[in-house]
Every structure is written in C-alpha cells, then in structure tokens.
Amino acid sequence: MSSYLRRGLISAIVCPMPIMGDANHKDIIYSLKHRVPKLLRLGTPDAPQAIVLVTAHWTTSTPIITSSQKPGLYYDYYGFPKETYSLKYDAPGSPSIAEKVKAAMEKQGLEPVLDAKRDWDHGVFVPMTLVNPKADIPIVQVSVLKSEDPAQHFAMGRALETLRDENIAIIGSGFASMHNLAKMGELMMGRQLGGATPMRKRSDEWNTALTEAVSKESAGERAAALAGWRQLPHADEMHPKRGGEHFLPLLVCAAAGGEEKTGNYKDDFIGIDVFTYYWGNQIDL
Questions:
Q1: Would you call 145 exposed, middle or buried from its count of C-beta atoms within 10 A (0-12, 13-18, 19+)?
Q2: Backbone angles phi, psi at 237, to 5 degrees
Q3: How many Cβ atoms are within 10 Å of 107's Cβ, its own excluded?
Q4: Tens-digit pLDDT profile for residues 103-129
Q5: Of 84, 65, 64, whose CA–CA distance to 74 is shortest?
Q6: 194: number of CA atoms within 13 Å, CB side?
Q7: Distance (Å, rounded) from C-alpha 33 to C-alpha 126?
Q8: Residue limits of the Extradiol ring-cleavage dioxygenase class III enzyme subunit B domain (predicted)?
Q9: Average pLDDT, stretch 222-239?
Q10: Is 223 a residue whose pLDDT tops 80?
Q11: DSSP code of 237?
Q12: Residues paired with residue 170 on neighbouring β-strands, in sequence order
C-alpha cells in the first residue's frame, strides 16, 4: 500500500458554532472544509475505508470504543442556539473496525471496552459535518483517559498506527493549542476592544515549544518530548491542571504517526494561532 494512505492527524474543534458559520471560527471552518478533506483524500479512490476518531469530549478510566452499526448523536453542550440540538450526521459506525481497534489496543497492554450504546459527541459530528458532509465513511469513536497519562495515550496511538496500513485514517478531535474557557473570554474581549492581549505572546511561546516537540523526527524522540508537555511554557494556562482532555488526542496521534514526518498548519481563532498537526500525507495545503 502506498505510504500516503497511512494517515493520522489532529483536528481542532471546540463547540458546535462552526456549523453555524460563526465568524470567530472562520479559518477553522475553511480548514475543516478544504484542508482536512485534502489530507484524507476524500473524493478520490484513495479515500479511507474507515475513520477512527479520538475525541476530547469523552474521558474514561480505560479506552472505550463505540461499536454500534448506527450511532446516534449526543448533544454534549449547553447554552447554544436551539438549532444546534437538532443537528444530524448519518454516517455509519463499524462493529468490525471497533473489534480491530480493541484487539490492537489489547496487544499494547491496554484494557479497552466496546460500547454499543454510546452515541457520537460533538467532537465527532461537528468537525465531520464540515469535513465529509456526504457522511459515507464509517466512523469509530474512541475515548481519552481520565488519568491524562502520556504513556497510556502513546500506547493507544501505537495500537492505532497498525490500522493505518489497512487504509483506516486516525483523527484526533480536540483543541490542542489551547482549551481554557476563561482565557478564551479574555481573548474575545481583547478582540472586541481592537487590541492584542498579553495572552497572544504566551500563546505564541507555547505553540513554538509544542510544535518543536511534536515535530521530532523519530517516534521515540517525539514521545520523550511530549511526555513532559506540562513543563512546556504556559502549559497550565493553555490547559488547566486536571483539565488537559483537549490535549490528549494529540498524544494519541503523535504516536500513531510513527516514524513519519510531522506536518502542520495554523488557523486564527479569536486572535491566537491554533495548530493542526498531521502525518502521512505531506502535500501542499
């Protein structure tokens, strides 16, 4: 199989507003509609046969994997416009792919569990509505771990890497560059007042250090650099302590990237850069 079919990427999303065309998400909307489909080679004979999506919005004690043939949607958000609670995304699940995920994780010493009742949260249906509105590719959703232990998430990623040889794409759905709601409010206020905030400088310092760590050439070096991600500049401000769930899908994808070169692109979000990292398809975006 051609090497470009071995895919893994981390996609940034935070709420249902991109589907509503929210201006603050303009760049992210563009990337989800254009860049990510290009990375996945959607609409070509090389499109993935299935997608395994690791979501920041489902934290569990052990990896849990959706195994329903037709999951529903779980509107796991509050205070948004009424129409965001009637969104639909009709892609199928895949019990057979779920079994493959489970078996691969067991080989890494993990204790995964299949769940045929769990519906897809907005970490799945919001980005995928924009990425693949045809909803014609099966999706299996995977949780992240409450422990936030990098080693466990690296093990999850190593397991998922083996599935990429079967043309199964791996997507991590989370806001890895920053997920701190209080600081997001500060940024929105700064944008409304027409000025930059000190947060921008700290965000840039964090993103620089994070990108350097994620871009290590070998999987071992990458894991070593990311194992101490809490020591990167301003990490606890970007992801409050015991609130790092939006960072965890990146750890999984960084391990699933194996020995392949890291690519990235950035989007503006309320005055800061949010990065997407990807492996296995180094193309002009």
A1: buried
A2: -80, -40
A3: 12
A4: 999 999 999 999 999 999 999 999 999
A5: 84
A6: 0
A7: 11
A8: 47-262
A9: 96
A10: yes
A11: H
A12: 8, 52
Both tokens of residue 87? 């969104």
Contacts for 280 with CB less than 8 Å, ≥ 6 apart = 3, 4, 5, 6, 7, 8, 164, 257, 260
Instruction: Determine how many CB atoms are found less than 10 A away from the CB of residue 70.
Output: 8
Q: What domains appear along the chain, each with residue ranges and CATH number?
A: 3-279 (3.40.830.10)
Mean pLDDT of 244-270: 93
What is the amino acid identity at position 97? I
For CA atoms 14, 20, 26, 32, the dihedral sign is positive
Specify the amino acid at residue 212. E
CA quadruple 146, 10, 158, 122: dihedral positive or negative?
Answer: positive
Instruction: Give the total residue count for the chain.
Output: 285
Measured CA distances, 202 to 187, 196, 237, 270, 272 (Å): 12, 12, 9, 14, 10
Q: Report which residue type is found at 25.
A: H
**Burial degree of 27 (CB within 10 A; 0-12, 13-18, 19+):** middle
Locate tokens 């909307």: which residue?
29
Measuring CA to CA, which residue among 148, 152, 199, 211 is closest to residue 10?
Answer: 211
E strand or H helix at 108, and its extent? none
| CA quadruple 41, 282, 33, 247: dihedral sign | positive
Neighbouring C-beta atoms of residue 90, cutoff 10 Å? 10
Q: Cβ atoms within 10 A of the Cβ of 211, count? A: 16
Contact 211, 226 (CB under 8 A): no
Q: What is the value of pTM for the model shown?
A: 0.93
Cβ 50 vs Cβ 138: under 8 Å: yes
Cα separation, 143 vs 84, whole angstroms: 23
